[in-house]
Design goal:
The protein is α/β, with parallel strands linked by helices. Among the domains are: about 80 residues; about 260 residues, Type I PLP-dependent aspartate aminotransferase-like (Major domain) (Aspartate Aminotransferase, domain 2, 3-Layer(aba) Sandwich), CATH 3.40.640.10. About 40% of the residues lie in helices and about 10% in strands. It is built from 15 helices and eleven strands. The strands form two sheets. Strands 1-7-6-5-4-2-3 form a seven-stranded mixed sheet, with helices on both faces. A four-stranded antiparallel sheet has the order 8-9-11-10. Helix 2 runs parallel beside helix 4. The longest helix is centred in the last third of the chain and has 36 residues. It is globular, with a radius of gyration of 25 Å. The chain binds pyridoxal-5'-phosphate. Pyridoxal-5'-phosphate (PLP) binds next to helix 7.
Length: about 500
């Protein structure tokens, strides 16, 4: 035995003692971990929402880590918790009016801890029968919420909405051109094209690149006055592309656009898709959660006609990242798209009616993504979620009303809690530079978080989303106050536009 190993064993550690800590050290570590989690919960509403931006300071903190000597595990956990607290934008802050990033559910935090500890491998059913069945059960439960018949659904958990959208583009391609799975795009006689409004999530453009279609295959359909996909324009573009020899295969409608939370006309787009023989994908990454709220559910009418749906549990369902969902009512398409034979995967369950996730999805080694969704929905129940989401929608309405009272003009139209607005009290109040200056002033001040965006490619706005389930009336008051201070600070110094 080498001298190094001997000393480690003498010290009461096995050869693995640094990787799997001995029981007493674990006990101290778990206490420190729980303290860090709870201290964060207690602190997060009282500090800054966004950090100050100082890359050099962070690099200086990390420079001493040369990993030449082991460091005390408890000290490491405390160090990281302290730095995350200081150097992070906090979605868990009640005045983070942010980009769909939530305050994580308590059960989600517990789930991710369990998952790391048990480390189930979900590539195959035989490795993790319980975990694979939990995900199958959940996919079916969610599918029912969207109005799918469960005997005809399939689906998969994904890292997020981007992977789900990528899966949608691939499955739509394989459905339209089955030879693509074997021969790729090279064998096709015409350029396949897909249709989405300019307000659709940009992950579609990435998906077009990843599938080899190229970004020009994504035909951007203009929006109407509501910043929703214009159905007449959709039809015109499909016709023009067909006339030019292209091969339309897919249309994407977004239920809750990322910038403005607009629900595009799902029923009308479904009509066009059916008439034109196109795969309808509904990207409901954030807005899909409205299916759980009785008052909001009617706004999603038509989603049940989608060939596939993207839904992100790590957005409005508030589970920790990443928890994307892809659903389809074509039971065999995932297999047709992804199945491969691998000699090293044992066939212990070949005679059972079960599916190996690696054969029906993009990932191979696969984390138990569904557990944080299962535990969160389990502990809250559908009713608990309906109540929480309804609360957020109500606070969104309140925010909309208060902004209008304060001389901000509301620009978007949605029942969901995203508000886009401009400053009606200042001559430059509808310009990108002025609105960006206000957003930056709010964020740098640290008391709240909002962002600037552009609707329809032409209309600059400020955007505030009630993304945290704890956000309440007093947080709306605080945001209004902060916005007003920033508006005055920026407005006074702002150059008047030439008359
Ligand atoms: C957030 C979002 C996505 C991308 O999802 P990720 O989980 O960030 O990968 C896709 N579509 C819409 C409408 C989104 O809001």
């Amino acid at each position: 035995m080498s001298a190094g190993l001997e000393s480690a064993v003498e010290a009461g550690r096995g050869v693995d003692g640094r990787l799997i800590l001995p029981a007493e050290e674990r006990a101290a570590l778990w206490r420190a971990l729980i303290d860090a989690v709870e201290d964060y919960q207690a602190w997060v509403g009282s500090g800054r929402v966004a950090p100050t931006y100082d890359p050099e300071a962070i690099r200086a903190l990390l420079a001493p880590f040369d990993f030449e000597r082991p460091i005390d595990p408890v000290a490491l956990v405390r160090f990281v918790a302290a730095q995350l607290e200081q150097h992070q934008t906090h979605p868990a802050h009640r005045r983070y009016f942010g980009l769909f990033n939530p305050a994580p559910t308590t059960m989600g935090i517990a789930a991710d801890t369990l998952v790391a500890a048990f480390n189930p491998q979900l590539s195959t059913w035989n490795h993790s029968p319980f975990a694979v069945e939990v995900e199958r059960h959940l996919l079916r439960s969610l599918a029912t919420r969207f109005g799918y018949a469960t005997d005809e659904v399939d689906g998969t958990f994904a890292s997020g909405g981007s992977e789900a959208n990528h899966t949608a583009v691939l499955t739509a391609l394989v459905q339209a051109f089955p030879e693509v799975a074997r021969c790729g795009l090279r064998g096709l006689p015409a350029q396949p094209t897909l249709y989405a409004s300019g307000e659709a999530h940009r992950s579609l453009v990435k998906a077009a690149r990843l599938t080899g279609l190229g970004s020009e295959a994504v035909r951007e359909v203009p929006v109407d006055g509501r910043f929703a996909l214009d159905v007449a324009e959709l039809v015109a573009r499909i016709r023009a592309d067909r006339a030019a020899g292209r091969a339309p295969f897919m249309v994407v409608a977004t239920a809750g656009t990322t910038s403005a939370g607009v629900i595009e006309p799902l029923g009308a787009v479904a009509e066009v898709a059916a008439r034109e023989g196109l795969w309808l994908h509904v990207d409901a990454a954030w807005g899909g959660a409205a299916a759980l709220v009785p008052r909001l559910r009617p706004h999603l009418a038509g989603i049940e006609r989608a060939d596939s749906i993207t839904f992100d549990a790590h957005k409005w369902l508030s589970v920790p990242m990443g928890a994307g969902v892809y659903l389809t009512r074509h039971r065999r398409i995932l297999g047709q798209t992804f199945d491969v034979a691998a000699a090293y995967v044992p066939r212990y369950t070949a005679e059972l009616d079960v599916v190996d996730p690696y054969r029906s999805s993009m990932q191979w080694s696969r984390r138990f993504i569904g557990l944080k969704v299962f535990l969160s929905i389990g502990a809250a129940g559908w009713d608990g979620y309906a109540e929480a989401l309804e609360h957020q929608a109500t606070i969104g309405d309140l925010l909309r009303g208060r902004l209008a009272e304060d001389g901000w003009a509301i620009v978007n139209e949605t029942p969901l809690p995203v508000v886009c607005f401009v400053d009606a009290t200042h001559r430059a109040g509808r310009t990108a530079d002025y609105l960006e200056a206000i957003a930056r002033d709010v964020v740098v001040g640290g008391r709240a978080w909002v962002s600037p965006t552009l609707l329809g490619g032409t209309t600059p706005v400020l955007r505030a989303c009630v993304s945290n389930v704890r956000t309440d009336r007093e947080d709306v008051d605080a945001l209004l106050e902060v916005l007003d201070i920033s508006r005055h600070r920026i407005g006074v110094a702002w150059p008047q536009p030439a008359a």
